[in-house]
Design brief:
Layout: E1 4-9, H1 22-25, E2 28-31, E3 36-41, H2 47-57, H3 78-82, E4 84-88, E5 95-99, H4 102-127, H5 130-151, H6 159-170, E6 176-180, H7 188-204, E7 208-212, H8 216-219, E8 225-229, E9 233-236, H9 242-252, H10 254-258
Parallel strand pairs: 3-7, 3-8, 5-6, 6-7
Antiparallel strand pairs: 1-2, 1-4, 8-9
The structure holds adenosine-5'-triphosphate.
Adenosine-5'-triphosphate (ATP) is lined by residues 17, 21, 41, 43-49, 76, 212, 229.
């Protein structure tokens, strides 16, 4: 099962952002033939720009400290988002947008939620007594324990450990997920753990993923449909990407590269 069938990026003023990005001058329709879509390309090619505009268009919640509407870093993307036309196969009602940098905002959000819950307990203790107090405090403890079970204590783990934990805790069946450079925090081993998580959710749980990445590991996700952003936006295989070939050649013979660098 996947949800979004295609998007159509309409033309705009090529002298201004984002239509001044070469990829968007000719982009047109992008058709999704797989539950996993991967955006690849050089820095500045436009991958995140399209992902952000799409997240706004899909009205997805952000996993950070601020919602998309109040996120100042997304202020310039509304017009671009408005110019995108969506075509659904089935409408998805669950999903989120997650960027590598949103992780710390999420930890902050969890911390303030925890403070609020502690405040609720203090408040109940002042206002209630007997069974009423017991029930109210029990309900708050229930919420605290549910958060603890889902994410553990994110203040006591590394960035990469916590990042993966958040994704494991938030990804659910039958959702559409837009993820920007998840590999930024992850070791190769944890990229493989994420690979396995995404593969399982796409194959067995009816999820659709659109991921911008520089990770050759994630580019190899089974049946992933890769779009290369350069002068145009076009389909490629992972073997054709520079990420894959440069890394492969480098690892095969680092000395050969070092002679020229
Ligand atoms: N809000 C903005 N206003 C003007 N230009 C922007 C804005 N955001 C990004 N750009 C420019 O648009 C281009 C594409 O940026 P984008 O972040 O989409 O690239 P990317 O392909 O995701 O790159 P990377 O792999 O480095 O994340 C860049 O040249 C960038 O400087």
């Amino acid at each position: 099962m996947y949800y979004l069938e295609s998007i159509l990026v309409n033309k705009g003023d090529e002298s201004r952002f984002p239509y001044n990005i070469p990829a968007f001058r000719t982009m047109g329709r992008m058709v999704f033939d797989s539950p996993i879509t991967v955006f690849v390309g050089e820095n500045g090619a436009g991958k995140s720009t399209l992902l952000k505009a799409l997240a706004i268009k899909l009205n997805l919640p952000a996993i950070g400290s601020t919602d998309l509407e109040s996120d100042e870093t997304l202020a310039g993307f509304q017009t671009f988002s408005d110019s995108i036309k969506l075509s659904w196969r089935n409408r998805a009602y669950r999903g989120f947008f997650f960027r590598a940098e949103d992780y710390f905002g999420f930890v902050k959000r969890l911390r303030s939620l925890d403070q609020e819950l502690k405040g609720d307990i203090v408040d109940f203790e002042k206002r209630l007594s007997g069974t009423g107090l017991k029930l109210a405090v029990g309900a708050v403890h229930g919420q605290k324990e549910a958060l603890q079970r889902r994410y553990g204590d994110l203040t006591q783990v590394s960035h990469g450990e916590g990042f993966l934990k958040v994704l494991q805790g938030r990804l659910q069946s039958e959702g559409i997920y837009l993820i920007d450079e998840p590999e930024a925090a992850l070791s190769p081993q944890r990229q493989l753990a994420l690979f396995s998580l995404i593969k399982n959710l796409a194959e067995n749980e009816g999820c659709q993923f659109i991921i911008a990445t520089h990770s050759p590991i994630l580019m190899c996700l089974p049946k992933a449909q890769l779009f290369q952003f350069d002068d145009t936006v076009h389909r490629v295989s992972y073997e054709e990407t520079e990420h894959f070939t440069i890394l492969k050649n480098f690892l095969n013979n680092p000395e050969a590269f070092l002679r020229y660098l």
